[in-house]
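cron nightly-structures :: item 1 of 1
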Amino acid sequence: MKNSLYLRSGLLALVLLAAIPAVLGATSITGPTVISSPGTYVLAKDIAGGQSPAIWIQSSGVTIDGNGHTISGAGGSYGILVNKDGTTLTDVTIEDVRLENWNCGLYFKGVADSRATGVTAASNGKAGINLRSTSGTTVSDCTVTGNEQGILLWQNTDDNTIANNTATDNDDAGIYVASTGRADGGIVFDSTGNTVADNTVSGNDQGIYLDFTRDNNVTGNTVTENDEYGIFLDYSSGNRLTDNTVNGHAQSGFVLFDSGGCSISGNTATDNGDYGLWAIESPSLSLGGNSFSGNSDGTQKLSGGSSSA
């Protein structure tokens, strides 16, 4: 009898503990919501369909703990939107949540010094995770799969860190870093100083793509068996590519087009369809310590005015 009483008491304690939010003092979220005050918010259940965006954060100092739940849509705008027009939001954390079947799963716009970690973004019509006009923000330990782009940095995205993520089976690039590009006043290079490090990128159309960007670091990534290229730089000068492994692509491992002044060192490129490295119209490259072997057309090709410094 006594043991039975202890057992019932223990079960009751577990039930009561389960009813307490995962973080003491947190606010539970049970459906679509707009967040306009700082604090910690914990998903208490999955959210399906309904309002778009499902969660709209309009305040700095907000943590969203997905608690392992899924926010699924029907092709609407965003699973989670972090934006307040006219204000730069800071210190926002998104963690441990799955976002699927939106236009973009997670969208940071006009944000600084924030983070996304443990996010899974799958089967979204555009980017799984999208940063725009965002700086000093870290995306880490996330999984992006079956989107158009896996992780997209676009337009005025500076000094962000994209690290330890897995990007697979996205229709375009697994990781795509782009500036405004061509504008009325000419070409605008406004996405600089980003770090793309230690990511696993495979099975996408292209692996890592840099477009009209400068002075970024791409290091320690494993980029394998994407449909076309491994790492492609397009009009992207002054970038540093170090210690990446780029294997098993139908075309070249590394491609640089009109991307002079880049440093490419300590990389491995094997079993790619064309060259380990193919540079076109890209002068003054710093090349050293790379291992390019087993590629169909050779180790490297510098064409159209490309040269090594």
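cron nightly-structures :: done
The radius of gyration is 22 Å.
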